[in-house]
Amino acid sequence: MKIATSDGEQNQFMSVPELIDKWAEDTPDAVFLIDPHSDTQITYQMLKSQASAVAHNISSCGVKAGESVAYAMSNNPQTAVTVLGILYGGFLATSINLVAGRDTISYVLEHSEAKLVLANAMGEELVSSVQSEVAVMRCIIVVDEGFLVAPDQLQPKSITAETDGLLMYTSGTTGRPKGVVLSHKNLIAGGRNTALAHQLANQDRGMCILPLYHINGLCVTVMGALVSGGSLVVPHRFSVSSFWQTIVKQQITWFSAVPTQISYLLHYKGKIPPKEQLVNVGFARSASAPLSPDVQEAFEARFGIPIVETMGLTETAAQILSNPLPPGVRKIGSPGVAFGNEVIIADENQREVRRGKEGEVLVRGPNIMRCYLKNETATVQALTADGWLRTGDLGRMDDDGYVFITGRLKELIIKGGENIAPREVDEALYSHSDVVEAAAFSRKCDRYGETVEAAVMVCEGSKATEAELIEMCVSRLGNFKAPDRVHFLPELPKGPSGKIQRIKLLNLVMSEAAQDRTD
């Protein structure tokens, strides 16, 4: 791989095991992971030993290289080691989103043909609830200290930059999540793009406050730190009340967050260290959803920490665009310029348009996914013959190369940085026998950026209630994806072909609410 360092030096492509081995040999005693709750540290030499142990123990379960091994784990340093251990053995690390709801978890395990699930307490409970529905899964192993030890270190074989490494599912407009297959090259390129844009070096220390089943947490923070040879603090959860104390105590130099977390930090009323204790923090990184300019300016004024807005996708191993670090020009409202890959704005024929004109955002580079698992149609639709990924986002590029996102071709709802496919909610609502028509849509929300609402038409004489429908969605999808409101309409708006026009729903329900207030 091409590893970017702070001075722009680049090396050849390599696999994740090769990169781990490199740091274990070059800087064996340098710290890689820190648990802020126990103050335990994992050096690069320990990382190699523990990752090798994870790979050895997976192999001992009869799993072959290339087969899917799922991880259902909340954050801690063990989780990071476990994921890297799956990669170290040449297995396909399959992430389980712990807030996805049991229907999605069951689907992901079955679709990925996961032979084994590595879990902690929370993950074990979720996966156990669907285990009987997954035919191919052999067992669930709860990862403890013993799983990170093995009598013999496993020597990686036949693992190259092109070997498939990560399978991460992302929501789409078709309802069922799509499995994004990323190679070792893709993963390291994603980390390299982060290191390149943010000038990360081995003296930098990040803090991971995003889940490692999310591409931002895994590729930006873990791979960004691994590629640059730096260190990473991994709290067990994001806590506003302890956030700043951890920043100061652990001498954090950067962290990546979603706008929701930045807003929580901004509005926290508890004790906050004075600005002079935060001078080690070179920047905060924002991604996964557009950041409000007002929130960005207020955060920077309060804490004295510049926010670097960025943009990335699961299909691109996270980051594709970033604003430069100060004193470089940061354009508020833009996720920045391309680092480590090419980005263009294209017309409907995937031809680049002139600067300032709106079109679809296309990306090309070593970070682009290999395919969607078992979905050739979606893969062909997403990847052009000459290697461009169609993001489905609309935007324009100014004369300086900064991209401004203006909309989405896709209908995704982005809540707190997580993608939610409206059709998933539609299908949950349709499972009620009284629901004749259903469509989910987004509403702007100060807390999450966007929140989920839905409109339904029920059959005549139905006694279904809003609370009943919401509870049904919670049961099927989990609290996070379930709608906050369900509006009952006499009919949902449709186009000439009879297709429900989702885009009109928000204005329609707002108009009905206004009419009710005047009646």
- Strand order within the widest beta sheet: 2-1-10-9-11-12-13-14-15
Task: Report the sheet with the most strands, covering strand number, pairing sense and barrel closure.
Answer: 9 strands, mixed
Radius of gyration: 23 Å
The second-level CATH architecture of the largest domain is 3-Layer(aba) Sandwich
Secondary structure category: alpha/beta
Task: Describe the fold and architecture.
The chain has 519 residues and is an alpha/beta fold. It folds into two domains: 16-397, ANL, N-terminal domain (Rossmann fold), CATH 3.40.50; 413-518, 2-Layer Sandwich (GMP Synthetase, Chain A, domain 3), CATH 3.30.300. 31% of the residues lie in helices and 24% in strands. It contains 14 helices and 25 strands. Strands 2-1-10-9-11-12-13-14-15 form a nine-stranded mixed beta sheet. The chain starts with 15 loop residues before the first helix and ends with a helix.
Question: Any chance you could write out the topology, listing elements then pairs?
Answer:
Elements: H1 16-26, E1 31-34, E2 41-43, H2 44-60, E3 68-72, H3 77-88, E4 92-95, H4 102-112, E5 116-119, H5 121-128, E6 139-142, E7 164-170, E8 178-183, H6 184-198, E9 205-208, H7 215-228, E10 231-233, H8 240-249, E11 254-257, H9 259-267, E12 283-286, H10 293-303, E13 307-313, E14 318-322, E15 337-338, E16 342-346, E17 359-364, E18 371-372, H11 376-382, E19 389-397, E20 403-408, E21 413-415, E22 418-420, H12 422-430, E23 435-445, E24 449-458, H13 466-477, E25 485-488, H14 505-518
Parallel strand pairs: 1-10, 3-4, 3-5, 4-7, 5-6, 9-10, 9-11, 11-12, 12-13, 24-25
Antiparallel strand pairs: 1-2, 7-8, 8-18, 13-14, 14-15, 16-17, 17-19, 19-20, 21-22, 23-24
